[in-house]
Write a structure and sequence with these properties.
With about 270 residues, this protein is an alpha+beta fold. It has nine helices and seven strands. Strands 1, 2, 3, 4, 5, 6 and 7 form a seven-stranded antiparallel beta sheet that branches. The protein is globular and about 50 Å long. The N and C termini lie far apart (about 55 Å).
């Protein structure tokens, strides 16, 4: 007989939230919204997956970039807009009496596949009218992200190197290799891997691939560039290889993704 178990010595209450609105938005540089005041004591959690966006609320302005999370509670009209070519982010509105996050403070939190899956599941459940289940999952997402912040906070020196690496990757996206990146930063391949696992929970190559694919999605959604041109721009050796990598990541070829996104956008426009 085999079994597994755990007995908690000091049980803690889970984070209690009541969700009523969830969006997953990918806006382009024309995306800009003026939002009416929220209901009393209502929070908004914004988590950026890729790109850059700005939020102006209560005389404060925040700029959010990849993997940054912000909690706000606007008391008046507020605005937010895309400040780069694209801004892909999650937006969750909810109430809570025991939220352990600091308001108006940016957190750097790199999500794993688990958190991303839970984000989507919470949205799917809310669409189905299952508000309690959706709210429970959002509480779990916040708990997991807080755990990542507390247990894996890198040093300032490590973050400085990681940010330099990120800037280098984005400026040389079509040609950069892991070996070239390590040489440019004057560190060993092993140190580079450790830094990326600490800051991004990914290997350097996985991080580069994710940025390439995020750019590919943006090009497919917002331009009419040919597949071969997108592949060349992002440094893929052939269109076939680009299609293979994209399909492995998203489960759909880039050509079908472009068609699907255009149909989806014609049928639905976020009412924010």
């Amino acid at each position: 007989m085999n079994f597994d178990f755990c007995v908690c010595e000091s049980p803690e209450h889970c984070i209690d939230v009541k969700v009523d609105t969830i969006y997953n938005i990918c806006g382009n540089k024309s995306y800009s919204v003026v939002h009416a005041p929220l209901e009393t004591e209502k929070y908004i959690l914004i988590y950026t997956l890729a790109g850059n966006g700005c939020i102006k609320t209560d005389n404060l302005t925040f700029t959010l970039t990849d993997y940054e999370m912000l909690l706000i509670k606007p008391t008046d009209y507020f605005t937010y807009w895309c400040s780069s070519d694209h801004w892909n982010f999650w937006w969750i509105e909810f109430w809570s009496d025991n939220l352990p996050l600091e308001m108006n403070h940016k957190y750097k939190v790199v999500t794993t596949e688990l958190e991303l899956m839970l984000f989507q599941k919470s949205l799917d459940l809310l669409k189905q009218g299952k508000e309690k289940l959706s709210s429970s999952i959002v509480g779990g997402i916040i708990s997991l992200m807080l755990m990542n912040i507390d247990e894996n906070k890198p040093t300032e020196h490590t973050l400085e190197i990681f940010n330099k690496a990120d800037t280098t990757i984005r400026s040389r996206l079509s040609t950069i290799t892991v070996a070239q990146l390590a040489k440019h930063l004057n560190i060993s391949d092993r140190t580079l891997r450790n830094i990326f696992h600490k800051c991004a929970y990914l290997s350097p190559q996985q991080y580069i691939d994710n940025i390439k694919l995020a750019n590919a999605r943006f090009m497919l959604e917002n331009t009419s560039m040919a597949m071969s041109e997108i592949a060349l721009t992002l440094g893929y050796c052939t269109q076939f290889y680009f299609t293979q990598v994209f399909s492995n990541k998203y489960g759909i070829p880039p050509s079908k993704y472009r068609n699907y996104f255009r149909v989806k956008e014609e049928c639905y426009s976020p009412n924010l």
